[in-house]
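Thread amino acids onto this structure.
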C-alpha cells in the first residue's frame, strides 16, 4: 500500500500498559465507523508505510482508542511507534451522505458562493479551535472559511465544486488593504 492510496486518520499518542498496547487519537467524523478495522498503516514523516494487523481496538474517549497491533507486544515496542501517523486506505473509508465530503477529496475544487458566484479554489484545510477551516485561494489571497453547515453546506464531487454561503464582509476583511487590525 502506498501513502497516496491512503488518508491520515490519526496518530499514535502514547504507550498504554506493558503488553504493547498504544493509545491512538483518531481524527475522524464518527469513531464508531472505525471500530472494526483489521489493518492499519503507520509511518513517520517520509518513511514508507508499515502495515499492522489490528488484534484489538477499544474506544477510550471521544477521539481515542486503545490499539493492540500484531508484532507489537512489549512496552518498548509500543514506545517505538509513538508519534507515528495512522493511515487507512481511502477506498475503505465509510461512505458519507450526499453533499458531504472528506477534505482530501475536494482539494483543488472550485469554490462557488451562493451570492457571489465562483470565487477561487480549495487550497487546504486546517484545524481551528472550534471547527475545521477551509483555506481558499481568492485573487492571490488565502481566505479562511469555517467549515460549518451554514458556511460550507455541500460539495459536488462530480462537478468538482464546493458550495459556500459566506458571511457578509468576509472577503472584504482579507482584501481591504486599508483595514486596520483591532487590538
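Threaded sequence (183 positions):
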Amino acid at each position: 500500500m502506498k501513502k497516496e492510496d491512503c488518508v491520515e486518520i490519526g496518530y499514535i499518542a502514547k504507550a498504554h500498559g506493558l503488553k504493547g498496547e498504544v493509545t491512538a487519537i483518531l481524527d475522524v467524523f464518527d469513531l464508531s465507523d472505525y471500530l472494526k478495522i483489521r489493518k492499519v498503516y503507520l509511518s513517520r514523516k517520509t518513511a514508507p508505510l508499515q502495515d499492522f494487523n489490528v488484534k484489538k481496538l477499544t474506544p477510550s474517549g471521544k477521539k481515542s482508542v486503545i490499539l493492540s497491533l500484531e508484532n507489537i507486544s512489549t512496552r518498548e515496542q509500543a514506545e517505538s511507534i509513538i508519534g507515528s501517523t495512522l493511515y487507512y486506505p481511502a477506498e475503505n473509508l465509510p461512505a458519507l451522505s450526499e453533499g458531504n465530503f472528506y477534505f482530501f477529496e475536494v482539494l483543488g475544487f472550485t469554490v462557488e458562493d451562493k451570492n457571489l458566484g465562483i470565487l477561487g479554489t480549495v487550497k487546504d484545510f486546517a484545524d481551528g479551535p472550534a471547527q475545521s477551516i477551509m483555506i481558499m485561494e481568492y485573487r492571490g489571497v488565502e481566505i479562511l472559511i469555517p467549515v460549518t453547515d451554514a458556511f460550507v453546506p455541500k460539495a459536488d464531487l462530480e462537478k468538482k465544486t464546493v458550495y459556500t454561503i459566506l458571511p457578509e464582509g468576509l472577503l472584504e476583511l482579507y482584501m481591504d488593504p486599508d483595514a486596520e487590525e483591532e487590538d
